Protein backbone atom coordinates (compact mmCIF):
# COMPACT_ATOMS: atom_id res chain seq x y z
CA UNK A 1 0.00 0.00 0.00
CA UNK A 2 1.32 3.46 -0.84
CA UNK A 3 0.08 7.04 -0.56
CA UNK A 4 -0.65 7.38 -4.28
CA UNK A 5 -2.90 4.31 -4.22
CA UNK A 6 -4.80 5.81 -1.31
CA UNK A 7 -5.11 9.15 -3.12
CA UNK A 8 -6.63 7.39 -6.10
CA UNK A 9 -8.93 5.39 -3.85
CA UNK A 10 -10.19 8.51 -2.04
CA UNK A 11 -10.76 10.35 -5.33
CA UNK A 12 -12.72 7.42 -6.82
CA UNK A 13 -14.92 7.36 -3.72
CA UNK A 14 -15.47 11.10 -4.03
CA UNK A 15 -16.25 11.09 -7.76
CA UNK A 16 -18.08 7.74 -7.79
CA UNK A 17 -16.34 7.06 -11.09
CA UNK A 18 -12.98 5.63 -12.16
CA UNK A 19 -12.85 7.75 -15.32
CA UNK A 20 -13.72 11.02 -13.58
CA UNK A 21 -11.21 10.29 -10.82
CA UNK A 22 -8.56 9.58 -13.46
CA UNK A 23 -9.20 13.00 -15.04
CA UNK A 24 -8.88 14.69 -11.65
CA UNK A 25 -5.60 12.92 -10.95
CA UNK A 26 -4.20 13.48 -14.46
CA UNK A 27 -3.76 9.77 -15.08
CA UNK A 28 -5.29 7.39 -17.58
CA UNK A 29 -8.36 5.35 -16.63
CA UNK A 30 -6.29 2.21 -17.22
CA UNK A 31 -3.56 3.49 -14.89
CA UNK A 32 -5.92 4.30 -12.01
CA UNK A 33 -7.69 0.94 -12.42
CA UNK A 34 -4.38 -0.89 -12.25
CA UNK A 35 -3.38 1.03 -9.11
CA UNK A 36 -6.65 0.11 -7.37
CA UNK A 37 -6.30 -3.51 -8.46
CA UNK A 38 -2.85 -3.63 -6.81
CA UNK A 39 -4.29 -2.04 -3.66
CA UNK A 40 -7.04 -4.69 -3.58
CA UNK A 41 -4.45 -7.43 -4.03
CA UNK A 42 -2.40 -6.02 -1.16
CA UNK A 43 -5.47 -5.85 1.11
CA UNK A 44 -6.81 -9.21 -0.14
CA UNK A 45 -10.28 -7.83 -0.62
CA UNK A 46 -12.50 -6.07 -3.13
CA UNK A 47 -13.09 -2.33 -2.66
CA UNK A 48 -15.65 -1.61 -5.37
CA UNK A 49 -18.65 -3.38 -6.82
CA UNK A 50 -18.97 -2.57 -10.52
CA UNK A 51 -22.20 -2.64 -12.51
CA UNK A 52 -23.65 -1.00 -15.65
CA UNK A 53 -25.14 1.66 -13.34
CA UNK A 54 -21.75 2.60 -11.90
CA UNK A 55 -19.72 1.63 -8.85
CA UNK A 56 -20.55 1.07 -5.19
CA UNK A 57 -18.26 0.84 -2.19
CA UNK A 58 -17.92 -2.54 -0.51
CA UNK A 59 -17.97 -2.83 3.28
CA UNK A 60 -14.16 -2.98 3.16
CA UNK A 61 -14.00 0.29 1.22
CA UNK A 62 -16.36 1.98 3.69
CA UNK A 63 -14.07 0.86 6.51
CA UNK A 64 -10.93 2.05 4.72
CA UNK A 65 -12.23 5.43 3.48
CA UNK A 66 -12.07 7.56 6.68
CA UNK A 67 -8.60 6.23 7.52
CA UNK A 68 -7.39 6.76 3.94
CA UNK A 69 -8.72 10.33 3.97
CA UNK A 70 -6.78 11.09 7.17
CA UNK A 71 -3.59 9.52 5.79
CA UNK A 72 -3.85 11.44 2.52
CA UNK A 73 -4.59 14.70 4.34
CA UNK A 74 -1.60 14.25 6.67
CA UNK A 75 0.65 13.33 3.76
CA UNK A 76 -0.53 16.32 1.72
CA UNK A 77 0.04 18.68 4.66
CA UNK A 78 3.54 17.29 5.11
CA UNK A 79 4.29 17.65 1.40
CA UNK A 80 2.94 21.21 1.40
CA UNK A 81 5.22 22.13 4.30
CA UNK A 82 8.36 20.91 2.60
CA UNK A 83 7.22 22.18 -0.79
CA UNK A 84 6.96 25.67 0.72
CA UNK A 85 10.66 25.44 1.54
CA UNK A 86 11.30 24.85 -2.16
CA UNK A 87 9.00 27.63 -3.44
CA UNK A 88 11.74 30.25 -3.46
CA UNK A 89 13.03 30.61 -6.99
CA UNK A 90 10.29 28.44 -8.51
CA UNK A 91 8.51 29.72 -11.60
CA UNK A 92 5.11 28.79 -13.00
CA UNK A 93 3.89 29.94 -16.41
CA UNK A 94 0.22 29.57 -17.29
CA UNK A 95 -1.66 30.95 -20.28
CA UNK A 96 -5.30 32.02 -20.16
CA UNK A 97 -7.71 32.47 -23.02
CA UNK A 98 -9.47 35.81 -23.36
CA UNK A 99 -12.19 36.44 -20.80
CA UNK A 100 -11.29 33.57 -18.51
CA UNK A 101 -9.51 35.69 -15.89
CA UNK A 102 -12.48 37.98 -15.28
CA UNK A 103 -15.09 35.24 -15.30
CA UNK A 104 -13.31 32.41 -13.52
CA UNK A 105 -9.59 32.34 -12.92
CA UNK A 106 -8.95 35.44 -10.81
CA UNK A 107 -9.96 33.64 -7.60
CA UNK A 108 -7.71 30.55 -7.96
CA UNK A 109 -4.80 32.75 -9.06
CA UNK A 110 -5.20 34.95 -5.98
CA UNK A 111 -5.49 31.90 -3.71
CA UNK A 112 -2.41 30.27 -5.21
CA UNK A 113 -0.32 33.45 -4.94
CA UNK A 114 -1.44 33.95 -1.33
CA UNK A 115 -0.32 30.47 -0.35
CA UNK A 116 2.85 30.50 -2.46
CA UNK A 117 4.22 34.06 -2.37
CA UNK A 118 7.74 32.90 -3.21
CA UNK A 119 6.71 31.35 -6.54
CA UNK A 120 7.05 33.65 -9.55
CA UNK A 121 3.67 33.24 -11.24
CA UNK A 122 3.76 34.31 -14.88
CA UNK A 123 0.33 34.98 -16.36
CA UNK A 124 0.17 34.95 -20.15
CA UNK A 125 -2.89 35.89 -22.19
CA UNK A 126 -3.95 34.98 -25.68
CA UNK A 127 -6.60 33.59 -27.96
CA UNK A 128 -7.61 29.93 -27.90
CA UNK A 129 -5.11 29.08 -30.65
CA UNK A 130 -2.35 31.03 -28.87
CA UNK A 131 -2.89 28.85 -25.80
CA UNK A 132 -2.31 25.69 -27.80
CA UNK A 133 0.79 27.17 -29.46
CA UNK A 134 2.21 28.10 -26.05
CA UNK A 135 1.74 24.52 -24.85
CA UNK A 136 3.21 23.12 -28.06
CA UNK A 137 6.31 25.32 -27.72
CA UNK A 138 6.85 24.45 -24.03
CA UNK A 139 6.33 28.10 -23.07
CA UNK A 140 3.84 27.15 -20.34
CA UNK A 141 2.96 24.10 -18.26
CA UNK A 142 -0.78 24.73 -18.18
CA UNK A 143 -3.46 26.49 -20.17
CA UNK A 144 -7.01 27.46 -19.32
CA UNK A 145 -8.56 27.56 -22.75
CA UNK A 146 -11.59 26.65 -24.82
CA UNK A 147 -12.20 23.28 -26.41
CA UNK A 148 -12.33 21.17 -28.33
CA UNK A 149 -8.69 20.10 -27.85
CA UNK A 150 -6.82 17.34 -29.65
CA UNK A 151 -6.66 14.36 -27.24
CA UNK A 152 -3.59 13.04 -29.04
CA UNK A 153 -1.65 16.15 -28.01
CA UNK A 154 -3.24 17.32 -24.77
CA UNK A 155 -4.64 16.10 -21.48
CA UNK A 156 -7.69 18.31 -21.08
CA UNK A 157 -9.80 18.40 -17.92
CA UNK A 158 -13.23 19.96 -18.30
CA UNK A 159 -13.73 22.94 -15.99
CA UNK A 160 -17.04 24.55 -16.89
CA UNK A 161 -19.30 25.58 -19.73
CA UNK A 162 -21.29 28.65 -20.77
CA UNK A 163 -23.93 28.46 -23.47
CA UNK A 164 -23.52 30.74 -26.47
CA UNK A 165 -26.33 33.05 -27.47
CA UNK A 166 -27.03 36.40 -29.06
CA UNK A 167 -27.09 39.93 -27.71
CA UNK A 168 -29.77 42.17 -29.18
CA UNK A 169 -31.36 45.53 -28.50
CA UNK A 170 -34.77 45.38 -26.82
CA UNK A 171 -36.32 46.84 -29.96
CA UNK A 172 -35.28 43.72 -31.89
CA UNK A 173 -38.17 41.27 -32.52
CA UNK A 174 -36.03 38.43 -31.16
CA UNK A 175 -35.87 40.16 -27.77
CA UNK A 176 -39.28 38.64 -26.99
CA UNK A 177 -37.84 35.12 -27.26
CA UNK A 178 -36.49 32.96 -24.44
CA UNK A 179 -34.24 30.94 -26.76
CA UNK A 180 -33.07 31.26 -30.35
CA UNK A 181 -31.99 28.76 -32.98
CA UNK A 182 -29.12 28.87 -35.43
CA UNK A 183 -31.57 29.62 -38.25
CA UNK A 184 -32.49 32.88 -36.53
CA UNK A 185 -29.06 34.19 -37.57
CA UNK A 186 -29.78 33.89 -41.28
CA UNK A 187 -29.59 37.29 -42.97
CA UNK A 188 -28.60 39.17 -39.81
CA UNK A 189 -25.51 41.40 -39.54
CA UNK A 190 -23.38 39.74 -36.87
CA UNK A 191 -20.43 40.50 -34.63
CA UNK A 192 -18.30 37.70 -33.19
CA UNK A 193 -14.84 37.02 -31.79
CA UNK A 194 -12.20 36.64 -34.48
CA UNK A 195 -11.17 33.28 -35.88
CA UNK A 196 -8.30 32.61 -33.45
CA UNK A 197 -11.03 32.08 -30.88
CA UNK A 198 -13.09 28.89 -31.19
CA UNK A 199 -16.45 30.63 -30.92
CA UNK A 200 -16.64 31.12 -34.66
CA UNK A 201 -15.80 27.51 -35.53
CA UNK A 202 -18.52 26.21 -33.16
CA UNK A 203 -21.17 28.54 -34.58
CA UNK A 204 -20.00 28.07 -38.20
CA UNK A 205 -20.27 24.27 -37.95
CA UNK A 206 -23.84 24.55 -36.69
CA UNK A 207 -24.69 27.10 -39.38
CA UNK A 208 -23.27 24.91 -42.16
CA UNK A 209 -25.26 21.93 -40.88
CA UNK A 210 -28.44 24.02 -41.14
CA UNK A 211 -27.51 25.67 -44.46
CA UNK A 212 -27.40 29.08 -42.74
CA UNK A 213 -25.19 31.84 -44.13
CA UNK A 214 -23.43 33.91 -41.49
CA UNK A 215 -23.11 37.60 -42.34
CA UNK A 216 -20.15 38.63 -40.18
CA UNK A 217 -19.92 42.41 -40.21
CA UNK A 218 -17.56 42.84 -37.25
CA UNK A 219 -14.72 40.59 -36.10
CA UNK A 220 -13.83 41.64 -32.56
CA UNK A 221 -11.01 40.83 -30.14
CA UNK A 222 -13.04 41.65 -27.04
CA UNK A 223 -16.51 40.26 -26.28
CA UNK A 224 -17.38 43.65 -24.82
CA UNK A 225 -17.67 45.00 -28.34
CA UNK A 226 -20.42 42.54 -29.25
CA UNK A 227 -22.53 44.14 -26.54
CA UNK A 228 -21.64 47.67 -27.57
CA UNK A 229 -22.45 47.05 -31.23
CA UNK A 230 -25.78 45.51 -30.21
CA UNK A 231 -26.58 48.58 -28.13
CA UNK A 232 -25.85 50.73 -31.19
CA UNK A 233 -28.21 48.42 -33.14
CA UNK A 234 -25.33 47.87 -35.50
CA UNK A 235 -25.06 44.09 -35.24
CA UNK A 236 -26.42 41.08 -33.41
CA UNK A 237 -23.65 39.90 -31.11
CA UNK A 238 -22.71 36.24 -30.73
CA UNK A 239 -21.12 35.56 -27.35
CA UNK A 240 -21.91 34.20 -23.87
CA UNK A 241 -23.95 35.98 -21.24
CA UNK A 242 -20.93 36.51 -18.97
CA UNK A 243 -20.88 40.28 -19.44
CA UNK A 244 -24.63 40.79 -19.20
CA UNK A 245 -24.51 41.92 -15.53
CA UNK A 246 -22.43 44.92 -16.66
CA UNK A 247 -25.14 45.95 -19.13
CA UNK A 248 -28.25 45.53 -17.01
CA UNK A 249 -29.08 49.23 -17.24
CA UNK A 250 -28.78 49.26 -21.00
CA UNK A 251 -31.44 48.25 -23.52
CA UNK A 252 -29.91 44.86 -24.20
CA UNK A 253 -30.99 41.26 -23.84
CA UNK A 254 -28.91 38.09 -23.98
CA UNK A 255 -30.81 35.15 -25.49
CA UNK A 256 -29.14 31.70 -25.32
CA UNK A 257 -29.21 29.23 -28.17
CA UNK A 258 -31.67 26.41 -27.57
CA UNK A 259 -29.02 23.85 -28.55
CA UNK A 260 -26.81 23.17 -25.47
CA UNK A 261 -24.03 21.93 -27.76
CA UNK A 262 -23.47 25.55 -28.82
CA UNK A 263 -21.35 26.34 -25.79
CA UNK A 264 -18.05 27.80 -24.65
CA UNK A 265 -16.34 24.85 -22.95
CA UNK A 266 -13.31 25.69 -20.83
CA UNK A 267 -10.58 23.14 -20.10
CA UNK A 268 -7.46 22.95 -17.99
CA UNK A 269 -4.92 21.62 -20.48
CA UNK A 270 -1.38 20.29 -20.46
CA UNK A 271 0.78 18.46 -22.97
CA UNK A 272 0.46 14.67 -23.13
CA UNK A 273 4.25 14.28 -22.96
CA UNK A 274 4.77 16.51 -19.92
CA UNK A 275 4.82 15.69 -16.21
CA UNK A 276 3.62 18.66 -14.21
CA UNK A 277 5.93 20.26 -11.65
CA UNK A 278 4.83 20.44 -8.04
CA UNK A 279 3.82 24.10 -8.34
CA UNK A 280 1.82 23.39 -11.52
CA UNK A 281 0.02 20.52 -9.81
CA UNK A 282 -0.74 22.79 -6.87
CA UNK A 283 -2.20 25.48 -9.13
CA UNK A 284 -4.24 22.87 -11.01
CA UNK A 285 -5.74 21.78 -7.70
CA UNK A 286 -6.62 25.40 -6.87
CA UNK A 287 -8.46 25.62 -10.21
CA UNK A 288 -10.37 22.41 -9.49
CA UNK A 289 -11.33 23.57 -6.02
CA UNK A 290 -12.65 26.88 -7.35
CA UNK A 291 -14.61 24.98 -10.02
CA UNK A 292 -16.13 22.72 -7.35
CA UNK A 293 -17.01 25.72 -5.19
CA UNK A 294 -18.77 27.36 -8.13
CA UNK A 295 -20.78 24.20 -8.79
CA UNK A 296 -21.87 24.02 -5.15
CA UNK A 297 -23.11 27.62 -5.31
CA UNK A 298 -24.89 27.09 -8.64
CA UNK A 299 -26.57 23.92 -7.42
Q: How would you describe the overall organization of this protein?
A:
Helices cover 43% and strands 24% of the residues. The strands form two sheets. Strands 3, 4, 5, 6, 7, 8, 9, 10 and 11 form a nine-stranded mixed beta sheet that branches. Strands 1-2 form a two-stranded antiparallel ribbon. The chain has 299 residues and is an alpha/beta fold. The chain is elongated and about 70 Å long. Strand 7, helix 7 (199-209) and strand 8 (215-220) form a beta-alpha-beta unit. It has three domains: 3-86, Arc Repressor Mutant, subunit A (Orthogonal Bundle); 91-159 and 265-298, Periplasmic binding protein-like II (D-Maltodextrin-Binding Protein, domain 2, 3-Layer(aba) Sandwich); 161-264, D-Maltodextrin-Binding Protein, domain 2.
**Rg, Cα atoms, Å:** 23 Å
What's the rounded overall pLDDT mean? 90
> How many β-strands, per DSSP?
11
Low-confidence stretches: none
User: Can you tell me the CATH topology of the largest domain?
Assistant: D-Maltodextrin-Binding Protein, domain 2
Structural domain tally: 3
Classification by helices and strands: alpha/beta
N- and C-termini, Cα separation:
37 Å
Helix/strand order, N-terminal first: HHHEEHEHEHEEEHEHEEEH
CATH C-level class of the largest domain is: Alpha Beta
Helix content: 40-55%
How many separate helices? 9
* Beta fraction: 15-25%
Shape: elongated
Q: What kind of sheet is the major sheet?
A: 9 strands, mixed
- The CATH architecture name of the largest domain reads 3-Layer(aba) Sandwich
Amino acid sequence: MDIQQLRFFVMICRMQSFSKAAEKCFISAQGISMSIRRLEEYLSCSLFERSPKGIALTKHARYLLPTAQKIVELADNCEDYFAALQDAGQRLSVIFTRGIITEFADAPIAEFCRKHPKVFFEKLYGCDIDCEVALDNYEVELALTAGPLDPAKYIAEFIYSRRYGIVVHYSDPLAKREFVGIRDLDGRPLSIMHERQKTYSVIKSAADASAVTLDIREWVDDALLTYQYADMQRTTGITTGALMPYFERMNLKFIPFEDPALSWDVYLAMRQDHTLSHVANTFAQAVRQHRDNMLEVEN
